[in-house]
Amino acid sequence: MVASTVYQNRDLLLQICGILNTYGYHVINSEYGTLHPPLGMNNTDACKSAVDECDIFFGIINPMYSTGITHLEFQRAISIDKPRRFIAHGLVTFTRKLLAQYMYDDAAKTQRNNFEIQPNSVMDSVKVIDMYNDAVQTNLAYQERKHHWVQEFFRPDEALRHVETLFRDIKRVERELANLTNPAQ
User: Fold this and answer.
1) Residue 184: which pLDDT band, with cuts at 50, 70 and 90?
2) Cα separations in angstroms, 172 against 6, 158, 175, 178, 180
3) What does DSSP assign to residue 104?
4) pLDDT one-digit tens code per residue, 90-142
5) pLDDT above 70 (res 185)
6) DSSP symbol at 88
7) Could you tell me if 125 and 65 are in contact, meaning their C-beta atoms sit under 8 angstroms apart?
8) What percent of the chain has pLDDT over 90?
9) pLDDT value of residue 139
10) Spatial separation of the C-alpha atoms in residues 80 and 93, rounded to whole Å
11) What is the average pLDDT across 36-63?
């Protein structure tokens, strides 16, 4: 499953979905048109249900938060310990460092306050930083974190290169997934 906001990111999102499809993956993504919404299920629940169905979750963290459904998908993938990978736009990581002094009430930067920004053309909500923090599992001690690598990108070619590194060798991905479910083998 590829989870990402669409606003100001549609071209890259669709390109990633297309590339993964050519590698042999059955990509689940609503914008790509491959998410099956069960009858009688609302959009949010259908997207969260898709997380349960996928073998591996790939999250893209962009500066636009939009409706928050993507964040719910991230949280679902993390809560069920779905094998996952993430990339994050450099504006998110930069802003995270810049605004940390305002977003937290403690020196350890673990107690998030209600700081928010006015939506603008660069970033519509600091909740994208919360998405990043969820992805890297800042709530856990470093040794307890799993699947927390988040690759930063600024340009589309950087994102695409990392997608290729992670997913081009589908046999390797299958072996990695098998090792997660059967570590003794």
Assistant:
1) low
2) 29, 21, 5, 10, 12
3) B
4) 999 999 999 999 999 887 777 899 999 999 999 999 999 999 999 998 876 77
5) no
6) E
7) yes
8) 84
9) 79
10) 25
11) 96
Structure-block tokens of residue 168: 């081009």
Query: CA angle, corner 50, sides to 45 and 55, nearest 5?
Result: 155
Q: How many residues does the chain have?
A: 185
Among 151, 171, 9, residue whose Cα is nearest residue 84: 151
* Domain total in the chain: 1
In the block, tokens 């930067």 appear at 109
CA 116 – CA 124 distance, rounded (Å): 9
Q: Which helix (H) or strand (E) holds 84?
A: strand 84-89
pLDDT of the residue at 107 = 76
Q: At CA 54, angle to CA 53 and CA 57, rounded to 5?
A: 135
**Angle formed at CA 69 by CA 153 and CA 116, multiple of 5 degrees:** 70
What 3-state DSSP class applies to 57? strand
Which domain range does residue 89 map to? 2-181
11 touches 64 (CB < 8 A) = no
Phi, psi of 51 (to 5 degrees): -60, -45
Tokens of 48: 């969260």
Integer Cα distance of 16 and 23 in angstroms:
11
Is the Cα torsion angle 138, 55, 60, 20 positive or negative in sign? positive
